[in-house]
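W.,

You were right to be curious about this one. When I first looked at the sequence I had no strong expectations either way, so I just let the prediction run and decided to look at it fresh. Below is the sequence, 238 residues in total, followed by the output.
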Amino acid sequence: MITSISEIAIFSDIPNVDLPHLLPLLKERKFKKNHVLMFENDQGDDVYIIRSGMVKIYRNHEGKEIVLSIAMPGDIVGEVEALSNDNHRISSIEALENVTAWQITKQDFLLIVDKYPSILRKAYLILVERTRMLNRLVRYLTFYDVRTKAANLLMDLYYNFGKPSDSIFKIEFKINQSLLASMLGVTRESISKTLGDFQNEGLIDIRDKYFYLLDKSRLEAMCSETEEVPTLRKWYNI
């Protein structure tokens, strides 16, 4: 749970003495799992700061979903529309679990931006990181077969949620196969078969929706020609 504004990357350069003055501008909101905070192309310009829980950012077309990214505690969503002249939502955002967030209006957000220009620099850095993630997603969707896509995504998840335990590496993020399929732009049946193959080959184990990398080196070898700088698998380096 994020308890202080100072823990939020986009506000991290604001002097601590000024932070209490921002609190009255933040409205606490709670969303149940599967609640959609915003729909793509709808008009809206409120900004949300995730305090606890996670949300998926996605696009939908004719019943097919592609997940663009996952936002975690400390992340900000909706700031692009607030900083834009067009308030149509770029993508949809749905709670993957129960979520607590701070909500701030566009007007109040822009007042803070005017007072603390460092926020624009941080917003630019966040945009760069999101562009890196989208570039990786385009590579996955365009160039790789399902096995290579799945191996890369598992390594991405490990670099962001992984915890080593002896020779086994656990991904501390409960994730179902439908979400994995939407993150890779493949059918659930395809990802189910591929994960089954990985289990049979001794690469992974799945227990209670948690993934365990049993042979991390072999998985990385499958990705050796697809990611030249492994540390770039970190979704946010701000």
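Here's what jumped out at me. The chain has a mean pLDDT of 92. And, maybe more interesting for your project: Residues 24 and 129 are 29 Å apart (CA to CA).

Coffee later to discuss?

I.
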